[in-house]
Each structure stands twice: as structure tokens, then as C-alpha cells.
Amino acid sequence: MAEADAPAVRLDETTCARLLPRRDPAGHKGTFGTVICVAGSLDYLGAALLTAMSAVRAGAGLVALAVPRSLQPLVAGRIPEVVTIGLPVLNDSSDIDAGAAFELLAERAADAYVIGPGLAETEGYRSLLLRLLAGSRPPVVVDGSGLNLLARSGEWWKGIGCNCVLTPHPGEFERLTGSSVGHDEHERIQRSVNATHKFDQVIVLKGAHTVIGEPTGRVAVAPFAIPALATAGSGDVLAGLIGALLAQGLRLFDAACLGVYLHGRAGERLAGRFGEAGLAASDLPQEIALARHELSAHST
Description:
Helix content is 41%, strand content 13%. It is of the alpha/beta class. The termini are far apart.
């Protein structure tokens, strides 16, 4: 079993404040990055909307939401700040045309992608995901159904040409790696280290005291264990948040650490008002913006 090259760092406000991307007073929306979110299906359009709204509130200059063309009318305008992209679908099928979808996305300038939240786990999306990962392109956050599609794709990590942040919950981690996450923190850290070395990508192993690891051996652990965050859509919000931070120029490990910290801090703030069982994922994006603003006071 691989060992971490350095002891795990405990994330705190001082450490994470240093990671905040600077906001140029003379900047414009292009300065702060474009995120394309490939997310959602008929049964899980909410996941797509949560991902996109989170990216907006996390400071991305422009957020685009890519959904099957047949579903585009259902999401267009739902979030006024988000533009939509209609992905071509195959004739007489609910699946996307992967080749045409890839060409359409390639025409768009993106600083980061988020792919996976709420996707239909179809062959078309599996092909699109592998194409997006194969080239030397902007960084990609792979979440949710995207991770399940990778788990069905053999030795997928050998064909990756871009840098990724993988954000599995314990079940997705087990499908992706073939091993469980373990029960105690030390075991979770070691499982995460093993996976980062195997896949050569940053991994965010979600759960109480989320573990963030990168292939160099650096590991960070979040201070949060918040039952209120164990709710549908919470992970979609985190994926959009990390994608927005990548688009703003942060390195993968730094974006993952800051994203996990802001997500946890927002959850902590909301749990103080709603309790352990009243938080909804749609509460998080606005609170993330407030948590970022609060954290910025510690960055000077």
C-alpha cells in the first residue's frame, strides 16, 4: 500500500485564504474564466441546475450548461446568468451523438469542464467523456455518473491527456477502484493515496472529513463532519464549485482543497440555522459566496 509522501494537512481558514484567486479590479467576465458543465438528464435536471448555479456563485465569469438538445427548452432561462448548449441526439434515441457533441463543445472556449452530475449513463455520454479526457484540454472535474461511466471503461486512465479532479463518494470510489474506502480516517487516506497514484489524477474522496489527494503524495483533510450535507445535490454543488475555481486559474489540488473548504464552511453555516436535517442543496450556492467573502478577510 502506497504511503503519503507528507503528513496530511488539515484545512483551515488561514491555509485556504491563501488559495483564493485574486479578482482584478479591471477584470471582465473573460478574466474570471468559462466553465462548461455537461450535466443533467430528464430525471436529473436538478443536478445540472445545481452544478451550474454553484459555478456562478463561486465566481466563474461565464457558465454554460450542456444538455441534450431535446431537454434544452427545459433549462434555458431557469438560471438567467447561465447560457445553454443543446447537444445533438441520435435519431430515434434519447442518447446523444457523441461525435457531433464533441465537435460542438470543441468550438466553445472553455477554461474548465465539469462532466457527470445527473447524466444518463449511456454509451453516447461514455464516448463523449473519454473524448474530452483524451486530448490536451482544459482541466475536467468528473463527478457522479461520469465516474460510473469511467468505472465501466477498462483502463481508462491510460488514455487521459488532460488533468482531472475526480470527486467520488464512497460508493463511486469503490466502483472506480474495486476497493472500499475503509472505516477510519487513516484507511481512507491510504485508499485515496493509492487511487491518486494509480490514476495519476487529483481525487476528492467525499464524506465526513473529506480527503483530497494528488499524485505527488500531498494529502489534505477537511475539518468538517456535517450530517446536514448528506443530502441529494450536495455533491453536484461541490463539482460546480471546483470547476469554477479551476476556471479562475487555480491549480487542481488547490482548487479541490479550496472548493471542499468553502463547501464545508457553507454547510456549517447553514446547519447552524437549519439544524442537522433541514439543509437543501439549493441553499448552498449563495452561502458559498458568503463563505468566500468571509474567507477573503483572512487573505490580506
